[in-house]
Design brief:
The chain has twelve helices and 13 strands. The chain is an alpha/beta fold. It has two domains: about 130 residues, Aspartate Aminotransferase, domain 1 (Alpha-Beta Complex); about 220 residues, Aspartate Aminotransferase, domain 2 (3-Layer(aba) Sandwich). α4 runs parallel beside α5, α4 packs across α8 and α6 packs parallel to α7. Bound molecules: pyridoxal-5'-phosphate. Pyridoxal-5'-phosphate binds next to α4. It holds the Pfam family Aminotran_1_2.
């Protein structure tokens, strides 16, 4: 089967399973904020419409200043990008032909970017599912033979984080071995402010932070992200960036989004409440989840650990099809190394949608 490489493609899944396109779908496969975009976004975009007649400022001074103020870093440490995805490919381009270290299962675009730019990739794996522990000793050991480590933090698809002490250990080893550490914080805005590694930039010139506004503000179609790193690194990345890579409407919107503290705070409150609800409901039904902090998680039947790998994959596919029949779209995990289809990834949605999911999962458990 040709599985879609990303979430958010319900029509493709429906066709794969030969299901009629009769009813609307609840999309749990893309990990976007269900509260967004913020209410003022349509009006802000309409007001800025005239800007499409001109080229954007190639240096994006205003949005970069806004990011620098919000993050408390000098503007020379900021690069505006066309989503977090462009940032990943810029880093791989800059380090082309070198050695990368990845810890799977993780976001698939790291590997794609590395392969595209001829990096030699070494793969490690999170240990002991459903805990998905970081193999800290192995990571530190392999940093000696790597030029860059990519870490999604929180990690996609597990939704898990490293302890600050583990991050510290990795950064110190990376410094010793002259290895860059890319911490992709695409989902960090969903967590309390102290979860971000921004304050560590001052002490760690090898640290490269990637950020995305598409997840928190539900604007994946607009594309917006940025890099925070040492000024020398930012210059290298900027040199490889396509001119006018970020469109004027997105660039103009950025300062308004960053200033919308009320929306961010509301999102964090919603996530904390729904996370508790989902963790307790899923465990009561007999499902197992990754110990997630982010707005998505891995889930499987609690008995799957005792099944053969083949049975676990078959059951996950049957569950995916069952949910699809109920109009609920989950993310398959066939394209995540280390999972190979044995889990499903689900986004945290509104209470009404989460309750519908729980009700369908309860029916599934009853009939299986
Ligand atoms: C960990 C991670 N980083 C980056 C991205 C890319 O996000 P963007 O839409 O900002 O390009 C994603 C998208 O799913 C992601 O999961």
């Amino acid at each position: 089967m040709q599985w879609p490489s990303h979430g958010g493609q319900p029509e493709r899944l429906r066709k794969m399973f030969g299901l009629a396109a009769a009813r609307p779908v609840l999309d749990f496969s893309a990990n976007l904020n269900p509260l967004g975009p913020p209410d003022d976004v349509p009006e802000l975009l309409a007001k800025a419409f005239d800007q499409v007649r001109r080229y954007p400022d190639p240096h994006y001074e205003e949005p970069r200043q806004a990011i620098a103020r919000a993050e408390g870093v000098p503007v020379g440490q900021v690069l505006l990008t066309n989503g977090g995805a462009e940032a990943i490919f810029l880093v791989a381009h800059w380090l082309q032909g070198k050695r990368a270290l990845l810890v799977h299962p993780t976001f698939g675009e790291y590997e794609r970017a590395c392969r595209q730019h001829g990096l030699n990739v070494t793969s490690l794996f999170l240990a002991n599912p459903p805990c998905f522990e970081w193999p800290l000793e192995q990571i530190v050991e392999h940093l000696a033979d790597a030029d860059v480590l990519f870490v999604a933090h929180p990690n996609n698809p597990t939704g898990t984080m490293l302890r600050p002490s583990a991050l510290h250990l990795i950064l110190e080893a990376a410094r010793q071995h002259d290895c860059y550490v890319v911490i992709d914080e695409a989902f960090v805005d969903f967590l309390p402010q102290h979860a971000s590694c921004t304050p560590w930039l001052r002490e760690h010139p090898h640290l490269i932070l990637l950020r995305s506004l598409t997840k928190m503000f539900t604007i994946p179609g607009l594309r917006l992200g940025y890099v925070l790193a040492d000024e020398a690194v930012i210059r290298e990345l900027a040199e490889r960036q396509m001119p006018w890579s970020v469109n004027a409407l997105a660039a103009n919107l950025l300062p308004h989004l960053l200033a919308n503290h009320e929306f961010i705070a509301r999102t964090r409150r919603w996530l904390a409440v729904e996370t508790d609800y989902l963790k307790s409901s899923l465990s009561a039904l007999g499902f197992e989840t990754s110990p997630f902090n982010a707005n998505f998680y891995l889930v499987r039947d609690g008995r799957a650990g005792r099944w053969s790998k083949e049975k676990a994959v078959t059951e996950a596919e049957r569950l995916l099809a069952f949910l699809l029949g109920r109009g609920i779209v989950a993310r398959h995990t066939h394209t995540f190394k280390g999972l190979e289809g044995g889990w499903l990834r689900l986004a945290v949605r509104s209470r009404e949608e989460n309750a519908q999911l729980i009700s369908s999962l309860s029916d599934w458990m009853e009939q299986s």
